[in-house]
Amino acid sequence: MAWIAWGLAGIAHGARDEARPADIRMMHDIAYGSDPRQRFDVYLPPSPRHAPVIFMVHGGAWVIGDKTGPGVVDSKAAYWLPKNYVLVSVNYRLLPDAKPLDQAKDVARALAAAQRMAASWGADSRRFVLMGHSAGAHLVALLGADPERLAAAGAIRPRGVVSLDSAAMDVVQIMEFPRHPRLYDRAFGENPRDWVAVSPYHQLRSGALPMLAVCSSRRFDACPQARRLAQKAATFGARVDVLPEDLSHAEINRTLGQPSDYTARVNAFIAALVAR
Q1: Burial zone of 73 (CB within 10 Å; 0-12 exposed, 13-18 middle, 19+ buried)
Q2: DSSP the chain
Q3: Distance CA 200, CA 142 (A)
Q4: By CB atoms within 10 Å of each CB, which of 79, 92, 202, 244 scores lowest?
């Protein structure tokens, strides 16, 4: 674990320094487990005090991706850190070493570790919001659907979830469709019981976390999956808001934090959650 200035961090990780304020700090590769992938980075504003935390989970079809990858941090840090947020970007074990259910457990374990450290950063352990893109969006939606998975890892209940363009809200429906993308076979296997266990739709409980499901209207499957989850949530009083955006799958992630109505609406959702 080490402190790194923004400029040095950008050089080390190939990031776009011009998007990052010069006076914020980074803590790199904080371990929450023994595997080399079980690490997270922390991005801090100049003088955080009881700061809310955005806990970001990268995508990559459950098999690739990294906490410092393109689009994961830069625009989000440039937007939320000046608002006195802390941003945590987490890695987790990938296929074939860990299946999605184990990946979700990694994220829950990382969250618990980050919450234990939060006060030392000037952050508030009770004002965390989970955010993820693509496969990461699936993982945070799964944890938000049944927060007992977070409690089992020792995590404090987060305020809510922002899911950025997951098309895997109902895994059973996907796998039963004969022409589903092959990447889902690699991730979810052949056992229907495994599909249920990693399906946010099937794991959704009355105590689910409030969720904003951002979806690309350019994809045939993302918004229908999000709306299906929202419809089920409404039957027992849980909150799932659906935000369709005319952006590509990658743009949903990369442009969040850049000036737009999209960023403003996500920010409003988060700000309402973390308000005292």
Answers
A1: buried
A2: -EEEEHHHHHHHHT--GGGS-TT-EEEEEEESSSSTT-EEEEEE-SS-SSEEEEEEE--STTTS--TTSTTTSHHHHHHHGGGT-EEEEE----TTTS-HHHHHHHHHHHHHHHHHHHHHHTEEEEEEEEEEETHHHHHHHHHHH-THHHHHTTPPPPSEEEEES-S-S-HHHHHHSTT--THHHHHH-S-HHHHHHT-HHHH--TTPPPEEEEEETTSSSHHHHHHHHHHHHHHTT--EEEEEESS-HHHHHHTBTBSSHHHHHHHHHHHHHH--
A3: 4
A4: 244
pTM of this prediction exceeds 0.90: yes
pLDDT in tens, 150-175: 999 999 999 999 999 999 999 999 99
What pLDDT does 23 receive? 72
Res 207 pLDDT > 90: yes
DSSP 176-219: HSTT--THHHHHH-S-HHHHHHT-HHHH--TTPPPEEEEEETTS
pLDDT of residue 24: 78
